[in-house]
Amino acid sequence: MAKEENILKEEVQKPEEAEVEQKQEPQANRKEQKKEHKKIEELEKKLAESEKIVAELETKFKDAKDDFIRLMAEFETFRRRNAEERLNLVGNASAETIKGLLPVLDDCERAIAILATSSDDAAREGTELIYNKLMGYLKTKGLTVIEAKGQKFDVDFHEAVTQFPVSDESQKGMVIDVVQTGYLLNGKVLRYAKVVVGA
Asked: Is 187 in contact with 143 (CB distance < 8 Å)?
């Protein structure tokens, strides 16, 4: 009988223990939920901070990329200008050198004109040879003669020294004589042709 009473007591105690355990379980679950909730909040904060950092880095990257593109454009402009200036410098240097040689060409032309009526063939041929060599070299550098005689007077290429009255109407406004030969260097006027124009 004592055994039965013990069993009954145990059975009576078991539901009470079960109730206590049930009461303790929700409290444990609540604590775990609170911990998980805190972890979730912490993770959300970290995620928000990470997104903020990513946004800042993207902005910095975009700014750096814009700066880089701008810098490359400026460098390309600088490089192009530098190349143009170098070409202009070389072109101007060669133009000045060739301009300095034009009086020599003028002297050769005068000498050839004078020696054309002379009986000294060797002097004429020698002068023509020098003139042709010099002119040939200068032509390789872009020098060309401005054709003036018999052409219509053009202020872009000719400089009128004087006007000469002509009886033929077709000669009016035309170049009837060249006082000094004009030259172009690579298509640009190096020296205007000094001419006499029919009036």
From this structure: no
